[in-house]
Amino acid sequence: MSKLGRLFVKIFKMEKKKILLIDDDVDFLAELAEMLKLSGYEPACVSDASRALSVALDMDPDVILLDLKMFGLNGFQLADRFSQNELLKNIPIIAMSGHFIHDKHNMLMGLYGINYFLEKPFDSFGAIIKIETALAGAEKKGIMIRKDRR
């Protein structure tokens, strides 16, 4: 985070927003996490979809970035599990994929509780805009972020 960003956080005592990143590409996760850290977020990475639900429950993220095409559980199945969980169902989910970009997949995303979409490859500015849009959308709907949500 820049000096100005750190000063802004100190002055306004803003909490860093927690972002859960779920993707089976470990190199992609590391790069995305580093970019989000530098942008003032608190990212956590999960490369094993079978662990994602328990990590999300422990972490209580503000936003989830979820790859749709993974080994084992795919992103649609995982999003469905999040949407069925009382503690996680209101957390905005941003799907990431370079494969699922057709209209029929948009319909599936809505059915499984996915709120937003980032087409891979994406740049850091696009990711931050989507995250901030998701955070603003959650606040606008009256969904409390983190501790107050439960």
Structure notes:
With 150 residues, the chain is α/β, with parallel strands linked by helices. It has one domain (14-149): Response regulator (Rossmann fold). Helices cover 47% and strands 16% of the residues. It contains 6 helices and 5 strands. The chain has a 5-stranded parallel sheet, with helices on both faces. The chain is globular.
Pick out its properties.
single chain, 150 residues, Rossmann fold, five-stranded parallel sheet, 5 strands, 47% helix
Outline:
The protein is an alpha/beta fold. It has helices at residues 3-12, 26-38, 49-59, 75-84, 103-111, 124-140; strands at residues 18-22, 42-46, 63-67, 93-97, 116-119.
How many domains make up the coordinates? 1
Q: What CATH first level would be assigned?
A: Alpha Beta
Main sheet: strand order:
2-1-3-4-5
Low-confidence stretches: 143-150
Q: Averaged pLDDT, please?
A: 83
Largest sheet: 5 strands, parallel
CATH topology: Rossmann fold
The oligomeric state is: single chain
Please, how many helices?
6
Order of SSEs: HEHEHEHEHEH
CATH superfamily: Response regulator
- Estimate the helix proportion, in percent: 40-55%
- Overall morphology: globular
Count of distinct strands? 5
Structural class: alpha/beta
Strand percent estimate: 15-25%
CATH structural architecture: 3-Layer(aba) Sandwich
Return Rg in Å: 15 Å
Task: Give the termini distance in whole angstroms.
Answer: 29 Å
